[in-house]
Amino acid sequence: MTHILETRQLNKRFGGLHVTGNVDFALDAGEMHCLIGPNGAGKSTFFRLILGEHLPDSGQILFQDQDITRAKPFQRIRQGISVKFQVPGIFKELSVRQNLVIALQHHVDPRLLAEEIDRLLEFLNLSHAQAQLAGNLSHGQKQWLEIGMAIGLKPRLLLLDEPTAGMTPDETHATGEMLKQLNAEGMTLLAVEHDMAFVRQIAQRVTVLHLGKVFAQGSIDQITADPRVAKIYLGEVD
Ligand code: ADP
Ligand code: MG
């Protein structure tokens, strides 16, 4: 297996709108890939198709060579796909540590849970804040907690929808280093991003989605040098 994830001619329509149009896409096992494209390009919808929150009208999704096109979301999680969405899904009235307990308790041997959470807290730079209410964290820290809740499941593939949205430049950079470390440990990552400095920091390969289709693919240097890509952001290509 070289491709951990593959979509074949994936289609999704909402009413008359073709939100995902014949998307052929493949992720190499172990790569760190960024998905970019203007608002409304279909990036979040593509994630929801991979996660099983939407079912496609046609086409196929393969994960580790298994057809998961019709699999339920929990089956995909069990097979090793995890996600961090743009809007944090943390419990604000619980402590940082309790949030991680809730996320991990059904996935980790209870005898190892405390140790596992200590390790995660350290990785997330949140050890000092573990007793704080999650609602009192800074915006960036909330995003890290959410990343922790997603990686606590030890996924093979982690999807991140705009992981640095609203972060300060320092938080953004720290997030990039975190993701690079996860990738170095063997996790495959696919991130939707708008911040091109961040894409440059982390991505080994970039795919541009436009009007639900793969518009361009390549290294960050190839993508930023492509005049066709610049034009879609100016609304000059459709
Ligand atoms: P992106 O994440 O790239 O900004 P989205 O995948 O959120 O794009 O949306 C792509 C298009 O699909 C948009 O035009 C959006 O309005 C439409 N869309 C997304 N989800 C739905 C839905 N559940 N029902 C109807 N239209 C939707
Ligand atoms: Mg989106």
TrEMBL record:
PROSITE patterns to which the protein is assigned, alphabetical: ABC_TRANSPORTER_2
UniProt KW keywords: ATP-binding, Nucleotide-binding, Transport
SMART domains tied to this protein: AAA (SM00382)
Pfam families assigned to the protein according to its UniProt record, in alphabetical order: ABC_tran (PF00005)
Gene3D superfamilies, per the entry: P-loop containing nucleotide triphosphate hydrolases
Source domain of life: Bacteria
UniProt GO cellular component terms: plasma membrane
Domain ABC transporter: 5-236
Single GO MF descriptor: ATP binding
Name of the protein in its database record: Amino acid/amide ABC transporter ATP-binding protein 1, HAAT family
Organism listed in the record: Paracoccus laeviglucosivorans
Lineage: Bacteria, Pseudomonadati, Pseudomonadota, Alphaproteobacteria, Rhodobacterales
